[in-house]
Amino acid sequence: MAMAMSDSGASRLRRQLESGGFEARLYVKQLSQQSDGDRDLQEHRQRIQALAEETAQNLKRNVYQNYRQFIETAREISYLESEMYQLSHLLTEQKSSLESIPLTLLPAAAGAAPVTGGEDGGGSAGGARDHLRGQAGFFPGPAGPSRDGSGPGEEGKQRTLTTLLEKVEGCRHLLETPGQYLVYNGDLVEYEADHMAQLQRVHGFLMNDCLLVATWLPQRRGMYRYNALYPLDGLAVVNVKDNPPMKDMFKLLMFPESRIFQAENAKIKREWLEVLEETKRALNEKRRREQEEAAAPLGPAQMTSKATNPFEDEDDDEPTVSEIQEEKVDLSMEWIQELPEDLDVCIAQRDFEGAVDLLDKLNHYLEDKPSPPPVKELRAKVDERVRQLTEVLVFELSPGRSLRGGPKATRRAVSQLIRLGQCTKACELFLKNRAAAVHTAIRQLRIEGATLLYIHKLCHVFFTSLLETAREFETDFAGTDSGCYSAFVVWARSAMAMFVDAFSKQVFDSKESLSTAAECVKVAKEHCQQLGDIGLDFTFIIHALLVKDIQGALHSYKEIIIEATKHRNSEEMWRRMNLMTPEALGKLKEEMKSCGVSNFEQYTGDDCWVNLSYTVVAFTKQTMGFLEEALKLYFPELHMVLLESLVEIILVAVQHVDYSLRCEQDPEKKAFIRQNASFLYETVLPVVEKRFEEGVGKPAKQLQDLRNASRLIRVNPESTTSVV
Question: SMART domains given for it (predicted)?
């Protein structure tokens, strides 16, 4: 009941919209007044949208049906024109036969002169007609077998073609085609299709199966250079309406290009159009007869010829008739006859699936069947359409096309290329398309605000695109050659290199702090781990691509710490720290606790005093901060780099303490220096060693040696110079 009401409502709405006095503004005004709220308007909008989609589908269906009817009507008109031409020829022969009857009844003496005169008249008329056609460049083609054997012979036609084509450079291969002869030729002027600007002078040679276009050679009079060759079965001729000063023009359509030519006058243009159509019709008729002869059953004379031949060897195999019958393949079915035209329609309408379905149907039909000449000819026509279809699909996947829609937008073209057996090409084009899309997405990111914010956006865009590409690749190429998956891994590595290049320029080339670089690398690793959901682990690739940049960052920050420590050492007075306020002391305790120094309370004195030097405290905070940030960047390839950097930083501090302990003469200051040295050896170094082992997973022998040594560098006790 509800469905019937909805159908009646839809039909009523359709009638209302189709009425002649319909006004959209008035209709919307009435609808808004009658509706109860937003929900009614939404429902009405959905009904109108559904009606619009239904109307669009009907229009598409009608256009397609009309297009097919137009093609069928044009084909019927062509057949009717051929039959009318044959009928006219028969009527002309009947008329000449009837006119010759009274002349044969006259006496020989009286009838000799008229008969002779008639023959001479006919001969002179025919000679004049041949002379005129020769001047216009017309060479008659074969009109079928002649009873009296009159008409130009094949040798004469071939000789004429050879003579003319000797004037064309670069077309010697045309002379090797058997049965090819010249039908018509003449001078033309080519114009540009878009702006109708004159391009060049050309000369056209129309053969019985193709059209040759040659360009003039100005420096060599009467000579031409080969330009293009178009088979007649893929050529369409269109008359261009005169629009002064552009007149006497016609267009040649060869998918996917077209060319416009101008004849010398209207008469020559009409001759070109007529002879092109006649030659195409004759070629189609010839091939149709060949197919019918190939599909027709053997006659009785052919079947009994071998049995009645007295010269045949009796020991030869018997089944010659069956072998000949096996060579016959039925190509008379309507869908096979119309297959090339249907493929052209599908390609023009971008119905790629329909075109591939037709090709699959033909391949299935011709499977396990022999390949006589008609089948080879059909396959040659189909192969040309396959080439055109492949070119269109390749263009759909080219990086120059719109990259919107994500990886799913390429699925249609990729799937059809795979069905055509072009799996490798489809994989290559798909990955090139996605590489261009990823590159464009990265370039469109605006570099603004903090570096960490940009890195978050960069990682989101890149790894989301990579994840979508991997899923789409797995969907499209499931069940294909496993070599495609290797190509995807190679492509993913190159894409990762492009990402790391943009990442490094923003993070490392801009000299960001080590903490910022560590946070950015951490974000990149976290996004990279998301690829594990689809079985991809590119963490090692990020490590390999970033190792040099991270090494440079560690080395740079190590040098900064060493220079700062040396500067503080040069101004060291070996005095206790006075933080002035309890708040400052509490903050320092929290900082030292976060660095891992849990027993810092024993180094604090009365009020706000700290029984350590400012240099040692600053060194401890800076060293532990460096270690924490470096561990965020750590992976096995950086083990020795990090360890050597820590050793160099620690050596600067302990060497300064050792030097001060040997040079200081004041007993009170000397005791204070020993207290700072004890803090370094017994508190700071164990904390560094423990934190390093926790972050890396294994102990460091170099740090143990530093901690166990009472003095890191032993020098001559009498010496007052430092190794630092």
Answer: PH
